[in-house]
UniProtKB/TrEMBL annotation:
Domain of life: Eukaryota
Segments crossing the lipid bilayer: 422-446
Keywords (A to Z) from UniProt: Membrane, Transmembrane, Transmembrane helix
Record-linked Pfam families: DUF247 (PF03140)
Name of this chain's protein: Uncharacterized protein
InterPro entries registered for this protein in UniProt: DUF247_pln
Length: 453
């Protein structure tokens, strides 16, 4: 009987432990619901299906969405190396970092869209490893990886390693962790640090991805950046569009999701002509004076567009920026508006060739047709309404100029008769024939009324 009694007590204890664990999970779930302010999203399927590669990390997983992807597991060992180097350099106990994230767990989970299928220990460990990994990369680019204790030619923590691929992965929407995780670690490592210290390091790290040649000034003022930027992609976007750009209605969405191919949105204010047609209509193009690629101006039939650099990573960068603008309800869509504008301007490789000739586009792709395909494909699943965008007044003026009856007639005539040498020769021959016919008729009438004696 004593044995049965002990067994009953053991079962009762195990049952009570199970209840306690479930209540602990319920408490965490409750905390997460209260703390839920999602800012890191899953890319919508209708966007992902158009180009899965642009949204999927190739070498490193950051955050929970791609945590289980087997092809990204080799980088986990390097995350442990980063954590070890961090602890060794600062002489810290690893529990300090675990405890800091434990306090932020509910808030961190609430930053992600949907449920995260990781238990508390797994989630906290992932945040610690990813956070230390990112900070080591930021500090390495800022101060030099050798000063952090990494060997020259390190496969990850060096300029000549896989840094370019890692950098591109870290700018993908599904591959993010909240910036307050990084702030917590900086507070541990450097108490009393500058508020913009993290932003400065991040912008310097992502500088090679900026689609201009604008150098990053280490002494630049970073106060224009939103201190509420949620993650690296958000911070990168803020740095692109916040430099003097005035948005009249920043919280208003300027897009509509395309639910089917038959959906017709309300009329939108967009440039309805490509570069070739605008040129034929009398619009002239000029390279903009600034390095801010979105800083487009139009005056006196001159369309001024700043230079943009296109490379093999540009498509992925813009796709993820557009996806974030589409998913985040408090985010306006300057990047989307810019891309829709350029997509409408570029109809063929001929348009790209002209813009490249004018210095507006520089690219490292195979040919001009690849650039045209890039812009034409970026906004495939987006129906943008530019009526309230920063480009709306400009596009109205361009369309008015091109829609002018005299300009339209000239453009149609040029488009029809001057696109190739044979058409030009035919047009000239027709004009000459018309003149000869008119002259013959004139002299025929003249001879009839005033015959020669």
């Amino acid at each position: 009987m004593a044995v049965d009694c002990n067994e009953d007590q053991h079962l009762q204890s195990a049952w009570l432990t199970t209840i306690a664990e479930e209540l602990q999970k319920a408490q965490l779930d409750n905390d997460v619901i209260f703390a839920r302010k999602p800012c890191i999203y899953k890319v919508p399927r209708y966007l992902r299906d158009a180009d899965k590669k642009s949204y999927t990390p190739s070498v490193v997983s950051i955050g929970p969405y791609h945590f289980q992807n087997r092809h990204l597991h080799p980088m986990e060992r390097h995350k442990w190396r980063a954590f070890y180097q961090t602890l060794n350099r600062h002489n810290h106990d690893f529990k300090l970092y675990l405890d800091a994230i434990k306090d932020l767990e509910a808030k961190a989970r609430g930053s992600y869209e949907g449920e995260i299928n990781l238990n508390s220990n797994e989630f906290v460990k992932m945040m610690v490893l990813d956070g230390c990994f990112i900070l080591e990369l930021f500090r390495g680019v800022k101060d030099g990886f050798d000063t952090l204790g990494y060997s020259e030619g390190d496969p990850v923590f060096s300029i000549c390693g896989s840094l370019d691929f890692i950098r591109r992965d870290m700018i993908k929407l599904e591959n993010q962790i909240p910036l307050f995780i990084l702030d917590a670690f900086i507070a541990i490592q450097s108490p009393g640090y500058d508020t913009h210290y993290l932003a400065k390091m991040a912008i310097s790290f992502f500088a090679p991805l900026i689609p201009t040649d604008e150098p990053v000034d280490k002494g630049a003022d970073f106060t224009h950046l939103d201190p509420q930027s949620h993650h690296c992609l958000h911070l990168f976007r803020d740095n692109l569009v916040s430099k003097g750009l005035i948005v009249t209605k920043p919280a208003k969405k300027l897009w509509k999701r395309r639910l089917s191919t038959n959906v017709v949105g309300k009329p939108t204010t967009q440039v309805t002509y490509c570069v070739s047609q605008l040129r034929e209509g009398g619009v002239r193009f000029r390279k903009g004076e600034t390095d801010k690629f979105w800083d487009i101006k139009y005056k006196n039939s001159i369309l001024e567009i700043p230079r943009i650099l296109i490379h093999d990573g540009t498509k992925s960068i813009f796709r993820n920026l557009v996806a974030f603008e589409e998913c985040h309800p408090k985010c306006s869509n300057e990047i989307t508006a810019y891309l829709v504008f350029m997509n409408n301007l570029i109809d063929s490789a001929e348009d790209v060739t002209f813009l490249r000739y004018k210095g507006i586009i520089e690219h490292w792709l195979g040919n001009d047709n690849d650039v045209a395909d890039l812009f034409n494909g970026l906004c495939q699943e987006i129906v943008a309404d530019l009526n309230c965008s920063y480009l709306s007044g400009l596009t109205n003026e361009i369309n008015k100029c091109r829609d002018n009856r005299w300009s339209t007639w000239k453009a149609d005539f040029r488009h029809k008769y001057f696109r190739n040498p044979w058409a030009l020769i035919s047009a000239i021959a027709a004009v000459v024939l018309l003149l000869i016919t008119v002259l013959q008729a004139f002299y025929g009438l003249l001879s009839y009324y005033k015959p020669t004696s």
